[in-house]
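User: What would this chain look like folded?
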Amino acid sequence: MEEEKAVKSTVLALPAAAVCDLLSIGVCPRCIFRNFGVRGDVYSSCVLSIASLSSWLKPSVNPVELPKFEENTGSMKVKDSCHSIEEKISREETCIVCLGVLQMLCVDQNQELTTCKGKINNMFEAAVAILKTLQTEGHQFDSFCLEVSIPSVVLVRDRALWLYIKKKYGSENWFQDVMVTGCLSVKEALKLSLTKSLEDLLGRNSDMNSSFRIALFYKHMEASLELDFVHGSKENNLKRRKTGESIGIHNGNLAAIDAARTTANAGESFAAIQRTLNSMSEDDFAKKYECPPNKVHEPCQITSLCYRTSIYIGGRYLKYSRNVSQTCWMIDDERMGEASVEEIIGNAILPYLRGDKYKFHAAGREDIDVRMLGSGRPFLVEVLNARVIPTNADISEMETKVNNSKDGIVKVRELKRVGNDAWNLMREGEAEKQKQYAAVVWISRTLTDEDFKRISEIKELEIEQKTPIRVLHRRSPLVRKRLIHWMKAESIKGSSQYFLLHLCTQAGTYIKEFVHGDLGRTYPKFFIRLCCRDPAT
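Assistant: Here's the prediction, encoded as C-alpha cells.
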C-alpha cells in the first residue's frame, strides 16, 4: 500500500492533461516520468502501469481526454472514429520512445524476457529472468553493476518527444520547472527500475565499481533505419578497437558478449549520434524527423548476459631454457621451441579462476634462445570472465604448480593478484630504462689485456640500429638510437678467442646485432671497437 501511495502521489503531482496526451500518443508511464524529471524508487514499482495512471487521473481531466483502461483485458481504449479498439491497442502496445525497454516488452531468442500481456511493467519478473542467466554461469560475486546498451535511435526519439512537449506546452508554468529539473535518460530509468529487484533477489548490493557485470543489450533493427537522416547514409559504422590475442580453455560466453555489443552498436555510435543531435538546431531537426515520433509495432530484442571484468595475476618470471619462447611461436603450423612462458604460466592459473580465456602481458621480451635470470621479468596474466576470485592459498598453489612444471624450465616469483596498479608492475621494467646482459662472444684473433682495458673504458656509447633482419617481417623498418652505458669483458678459462661480455644498455637495445653488426644495420658495431677484421658472433 505504501508503494502504491508513493506512485499515486507522484502521478497526481504531474500535469494531468499533458500526461493523458502523452499516453494517448503511445508514450509509456516510465517515459512520461522521465520527461517530467521524476526520480527515485517509483520506477521499480509493480503498480506503475497505464491502468493505474488512468484510474488516478480520472477525476482530474475531461473524460474525452482520458485513455480508458479495461480491467478484464488489460488493454487501453482511446476513442477513435477511424480505428477499432483492437487496432488501437496493437498500434500503441510498444512505447514510441523507449521501444519497449522500460515496459519490459523486449524479447530475446529464448523468449525468457518476454513479458506476457497483462503483466507489463512487472520489473520483478524481469529480474527473475535475469537471475536464471546468472545461475547457469555459476559466478561468485559479492556485488554487481548493471550495464545497459540501448539503440542509438532512442536518443533521436527522445528528442522528438521533447520537442513535441516543448511546442505544445512550452508556455505552461510547469514546463519551466521541468527545464530546471532535467530529464532522465532511458538508461538511468531502466537501472532505477531493475536495480532494487535485482538486489532483493540476489542478496547483493549494486556497485558501479563492481567487477561483476549484468549486461543488457537492446537492439531494434527496423527503428534504427531512422538514423539515416543524421548523416545521410549508413556508411559511418563504428570502428572497433582491435583487442589482443587470448588463449582459452573453457567455452565461455565472451564471444556472445562481443557479438551482442557489435549488434547493439551497429551503425552510428551512441556518442556520435549525441554529438550530431547537439549540433543540430531544433528547427532543422523538426524538418527531418517527425515530432512526436512514429509508432512502432514491435519492441526491442534483448540479449542478457553476465560477465566479470578482467582479473590480473602478476609477478616476475625466470626462464632457464634456451629453447622456450615467451609466447606461443608457430611457423607453418609447426611449433618453435619446446614450450612457451605464456602457456606454462597461463595454463596453470586459468583453471583456478574458471575464466573463459587469458592474455599474457610482459614488460619486454627476450629471444627464444636467451635466458631470463636475475630478479626476473615483470608479467601479468589477464583472466577474462573469471567465475571465481582466487584466495591467497590459491595463488600460492598456482606459484607452486608453475615452478614444478616442465622440469622447472620456467619459474615465477612474487605472484599475487593485482588491481588498478596492475600496469604499474608492467612499467617497472620500462621505468628502469637500463638492462644488463651477458653474452658469450667469439672473435677472430686472440684477446689481449689491452682489449680488456679498452672494452671497460667504453661509456655511454651511442649507436644506431635499423630494425634487425631477423624481426623485419614483424617490426616497422625504423632506425633506433640506443645507448651502451658500460661494458666489461671477462676471460673464459682455456680459450683465447672466447670471452664473456657484460653489458648495461638502454632498454630496447638489440644485443646480438650490436655484437655482430647485423650486416651493417647496427653502427658502430662491437667488433669495430676491437679493430677486428671479422665480425664477432
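The mean pLDDT is 80. If you want, I can go into more detail on any region.
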